[in-house]
């Protein structure tokens, strides 16, 4: 900028003494140039600010505020199919990734409970109990398989389009601060500690629904919580995606970890950064 100003002043100085009346022409030309550049910048900014928000994205945000997760997913899918070139694909994929990650982590929690609670040597178990446990394990595997496929789609897009120097907060500004409907759900801790009775299908489904909502709301509250350091509110998302995808897609997992390292490039002792560095070192 200083070089440009110096050049303009030099031209005007020479024109004043050597050309005389040429000053007016030069000033006019320079004014037109600056005006044209200013108009171009304003148009670009205006287009960015005034890009129409896709209706299904607006409805998805409303559904989030109402904690209607099935409807959220439906509207997010409509953004992807009906507005494939919109800049709102980015926040849509953030929310899709968060939903799939939340579902996956809920199933991980259930698997931990079943693994710690179930005891094949328990004399109280009968054939039906064993069949019920197997049924729960099959459900967990089904969730894992579906979630990982959809996570790969969302996080592949994010890995290719995320810019660590861009502020994405405005995409989520209309999401309210939320808390779970049922904070006192049955966490199946009795079965986890005692090993009996075996959780029923209804109890397992209620647990998964409650844990999903808790995971979603924790994630959403982190995303919408503006941090003093740019994009730190996405560290948990990319870190957990990296951990979750490590076995099924090592390359994408590495890309997630690299985003964490990029965001925290000037924060050597950030806990997410240290965890990523330790994990990556352990894989060598």
Summed over residues and divided by their number, the pLDDT gives a mean of: 85
Q: Which sequence of SSEs, written as H and E, runs from N to C?
A: HHHHHHHHHHH
Total beta strand runs: 0
Number of domains: 2
The biggest beta sheet is recorded as: none
Characterize the overall form. globular
Low-confidence stretches: 1-33, 35-49
Question: Helix count, per DSSP?
Answer: 11
Give me the secondary-structure category: mainly alpha
Radius of gyration: 27 Å
User: Distance between termini?
Assistant: 47 Å
User: What level of helicity do the residues show?
Assistant: over 70%
Beta-strand portion reads under 5%
Describe this structure in words.
With 284 residues, the chain is an all-alpha fold. It folds into two domains: 2-49; 97-282, no CATH class. Helix content is 71%, strand content 0%. It contains eleven helices and no strands. Helix 1 (2-18) runs antiparallel to helix 2, helix 3 (55-65) runs antiparallel to helix 4 and helix 5 (89-117) packs across helix 8 (201-224). The longest helix is centred in the middle third of the chain and has 35 residues, at 127-161. It is globular and about 65 Å long. The two termini are 47 Å apart.
């Amino acid at each position: 900028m200083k070089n440009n100003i110096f050049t303009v002043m030099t031209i005007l100085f020479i024109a004043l003494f050597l050309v005389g009346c040429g000053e007016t022409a030069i000033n006019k030309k320079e004014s037109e140039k600056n005006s044209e550049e200013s108009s171009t910048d304003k148009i670009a900014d205006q287009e960015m600010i005034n890009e129409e928000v896709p209706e299904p994205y607006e409805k998805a945000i409303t559904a989030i505020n109402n904690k209607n997760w099935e409807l959220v997913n439906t509207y997010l899918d409509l953004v992807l199919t009906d507005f494939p070139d919109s800049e709102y694909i980015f926040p849509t994929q953030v929310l899709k990734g968060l939903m799939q990650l939340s579902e996956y982590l809920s199933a991980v929690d259930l698997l931990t409970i079943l693994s710690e609670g179930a005891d094949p040597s328990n004399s109280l178990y009968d054939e039906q109990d064993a069949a019920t446990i197997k049924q729960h394990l099959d459900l967990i595997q089904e969730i894992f398989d579906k979630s990982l496929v959809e996570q790969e789609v969302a996080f592949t897009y994010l890995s290719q389009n995320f810019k660590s120097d861009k502020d994405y907060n405005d995409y989520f500004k209309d999401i309210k601060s939320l808390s779970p409907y049922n904070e006192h759900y049955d966490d199946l801790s009795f079965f986890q500690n005692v090993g009996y009775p075996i959780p029923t299908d209804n109890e397992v489904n209620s647990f998964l629904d409650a844990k999903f909502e808790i995971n979603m709301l924790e994630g959403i509250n982190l995303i919408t919580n503006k941090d003093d350091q740019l994009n730190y509110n996405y560290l948990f998302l990319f870190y957990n995606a990296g951990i979750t995808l490590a076995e099924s897609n090592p390359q994408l997992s590495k890309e997630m970890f690299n985003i964490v390292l990029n965001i925290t490039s000037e924060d050597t002792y950030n806990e997410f950064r240290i965890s990523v560095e330790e994990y990556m070192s352990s894989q060598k």
